[in-house]
UniProtKB/TrEMBL annotation:
Residues 50-117, 134-206 are annotated as: Disordered. Residues 71-90 have a biased composition (Acidic residues). Residues 215-260 form the Myb-like domain. This is Myb-like domain-containing protein. Residues 91-108 have a biased composition (Basic and acidic residues). It comes from the Eukaryota. It comes from Apophysomyces ossiformis. InterPro entries: Homeodomain-like_sf (IPR009057), SANT/Myb (IPR001005), WH-like_DNA-bd_sf (IPR036388). The lineage of its organism: Eukaryota, Fungi, Fungi incertae sedis, Mucoromycota, Mucoromycotina. Residues 166-183 have a biased composition (Low complexity).
Length: 275
């Protein structure tokens, strides 16, 4: 790297200070001549005594600090040997190996710790209702599939054909007989206009009989909450009032027996720790 004129003048001033010092001038006198402080003159002289150059040496790297012997050239620069280059290559390779090992370790996923907690009443209610919903859906799909299989395909009725060969003399009689016995095709047994309405499951508000409506998710949740909080006596009349009369007290009791059976079945076949 080429030196600028300002660097050259500063370097010349430092060597001037060294020459004046060797000629016997004091630090105070040298500072007055160079226009510097006594502290700056003292640092220049110390650098010259240590390194042989009045310029401030660069901060040594850790590699230089580890060396037992350090060599400088005539300009006060560090002298690098071929051994230093080999050590640099080894350090680079070692650093790359450490980086690759850290990347591999970071890619290995650590198993997440298991969350152990007690099952609450809300968890039990949600699990039972979910199992009942799945059972109802499977039963509904099975019934709809059976209905589609058992339903006969409609075919238009056609008049019977006489496959027997007849003579020309009796053709007029056969035409008259077939005309008298011909019946028009009967209408189809089932209308094919709107099949979506037939296959659509009945909704909550399609029921016309009060107290015998379809059980909904909210109804099951209210029933389970009522039973689990009022186990003594059932209090089915209170539940009928809470459900606004959509289900009678007797059907609430029957529905509870149905849910209870599924609850016990689910608890016996499922590990509670997986909820």
């Amino acid at each position: 790297m080429a030196k600028t004129p300002s660097n050259d003048s500063s370097e010349a001033k430092r060597w001037l200070i060294i020459g004046a010092y060797k000629a016997g001038a004091t630090e105070k006198h040298i500072a007055r001549i160079a226009g510097l402080s006594k502290v700056a003159v003292r640092h220049i002289l110390l650098n010259y005594r240590r390194t042989g150059s009045p310029s401030l040496p660069k901060k040594p790297s850790p590699k230089v600090k580890r060396k037992p012997i350090v060599e400088y050239d005539e300009n006060g620069e560090l002298v690098e040997s071929s051994d230093d280059n080999e050590e640099d290559e080894e350090e680079i390779k070692k650093r790359e190996r450490n980086t690759n090992r850290k990347n591999v370790e970071s890619m290995v996923k650590k198993p997440s710790p298991k969350i152990n907690r007690q099952v609450t009443a809300k968890d039990l209610i949600a699990y039972v209702v979910d199992q009942v919903r799945k059972t109802d859906q499977e039963q509904g799909k099975a019934s709809s599939t059976n209905e589609n299989v058992d339903k006969p395909l409609w075919r238009p009725l056609t008049p019977p054909r006489d496959r027997r060969t007849s003579s020309p003399s009796t053709s007029s009689n056969a035409v008259g007989a077939s005309t008298s016995t011909y019946l028009p095709p009967s209408p189809p047994l089932h209308a094919h206009g709107d099949t979506s309405k037939q296959n659509r499951p009945p909704g909550k508000y399609d029921q016309t009989i009060r107290g015998y409506e379809v059980w909904t998710h909210e109804d099951d949740m209210a029933l389970l909450d009522h039973v689990l909080t009022h186990l003594q006596g059932g209090r089915w009349r209170d539940l009928e009032t809470k459900l606004e009369g959509r289900h009678s007290a007797r059907l609430c009791s029957d529905r509870w027996q149905f849910l209870r059976k599924h609850m016990l079945k689910g608890l016996s076949s499922t590990n509670p720790t997986s909820w």
